[in-house]
Amino acid sequence: MRLVSLASGSDGNSTYIGSENTHILVDAGISNKKIETRLNELGLCGKDISGIFLTHEHSDHISGLEVFVRKNEIPVYASEGTLRYLKERDKYSKIKDYFHIIQSKKYTSLGDLEVLAFDIDHDANEPFGYRVECENKKIAVATDLGRYTKDIVDNLLNLDALLIEANHDIRMLETGPYPYELKRRILSERGHLSNENSGKLICEILNENIKKIFLGHLSDKNNLPELALESVRYEIFADERPYNPKDFDIEVAKRDALSEICYV
After folding, report:
1. pLDDT tens-digit map of 191-239
2. Is the separation of the CB atoms in 11 and 221 below 8 Å?
3. How many CB atoms lie within 10 A of CB 222?
4. Which H or E element spans position 232?
5. Of 62, 68, 63, 28, which Cα lies nearest the Cα of 47?
6. Cα gap 142→155, rounded to integer Å
């Protein structure tokens, strides 16, 4: 399997996960042109994608969806809440025939991939994270979550690779330019994970088989790549579990370019 971030940040998010036979995207929050260009860099094109799994309906996760789906006739999988929101918007109602409602804690089979949706806490209509399995390999994407629960931890156990949110540094957010209400929303249990909480969540799910950890969805105003890395590594170092941050390949996913390709 391969895991590649096509883009990850406040301006747009899209993640590729695939086997030799089956290819999916988690979110389509960048333009159709960018998605196609970055898939081409992976030796693929839009027609090769078997399905798009949406985490939620915010614009930085769906901005390229309508054009990409319409041009390539690709099925879209998401929660009832997410798809209901899209159907009520003229732009996305044009592709509603490609929509497929999926449920939390149930697998969706596409080729040789099994995709499990799980609930996350965010200020959206029924948002999901995703766990993708192929034979004995497991990859997950979990961004846009204000907190992590036991259920989220359980869905992220025994992974080979993951993309996990490290959205903001709390001090930068608190002293930064955002309005007070927006700061409160980001810091709430339906907001975004801080660097520190991202590190704590990673500590809960570390195992010796993890080949790669991407830190994603970094704020361009309230975070820095080196700060996110330092904070997460410190949490692993300080945790009582017998792991050393040097033992894991941790990378910040690029805001508007392909990440390194992770093979598992």
Report:
1. 999 999 999 999 999 999 999 999 999 999 999 999 999 999 999 999 9
2. no
3. 25
4. helix 225-238
5. 68
6. 10
